[in-house]
Amino acid sequence: MPTVDVIIVGLGPTGAVLSGLLGQRGVRVAAFDRLHELYPLPRAIGLDHEVMRAMQELGIAEQVLAHADPFRATEYRGVDGQPIQRIEPAPAQARCAGW
């Protein structure tokens, strides 16, 4: 059995990105997931500047941006329909290049 430095269990968005970043730095990674295929439902539906920095380090930022839309105002409502919270997009001067 090959020797590894890190074992990652779970290849959701976080496990997959962590595996890639560690591998790029020469860390020997073994990554496992209980599913044999891609998870069929959306996850990691919001991307901020920190996520985009990680995508840049992985060399996939342009591919991610091709499938992303700028953040729009979002309103969260309770079961009674009353607003709980509204989140506005960052002002244009605070956004990352390309967003």
Task: Describe the protein in words.
By secondary structure, the chain is of the alpha+beta class. About 25% of the residues lie in helices and about 15% in strands. The protein contains three helices and four strands. Strands 1-2 form a two-stranded parallel sheet. Helix 1 crosses helix 2. About 0% of the residues are buried.
What's the helix-strand series? EHEHHEE
Globally, the shape reads extended
Q: Gap between N and C termini, in Å?
A: 44 Å
What does the average pLDDT come to?
A: 87
Largest sheet: 2 strands, parallel
How much beta, percentage-wise? 15-25%
- From the structure provided, what is the oligomeric state, counting identical versus distinct chains? single chain
List keywords for this structure.
alpha+beta, 99 residues, two-stranded antiparallel ribbon, 27% helix, 4 strands, two-stranded parallel ribbon
Secondary-structure map with pairings?
Elements: E1 6-9, H1 13-24, E2 29-32, H2 49-58, H3 61-65, E3 74-77, E4 83-87
Parallel strand pairs: 1-2
Antiparallel strand pairs: 3-4
Helix pairs in contact: 1-2
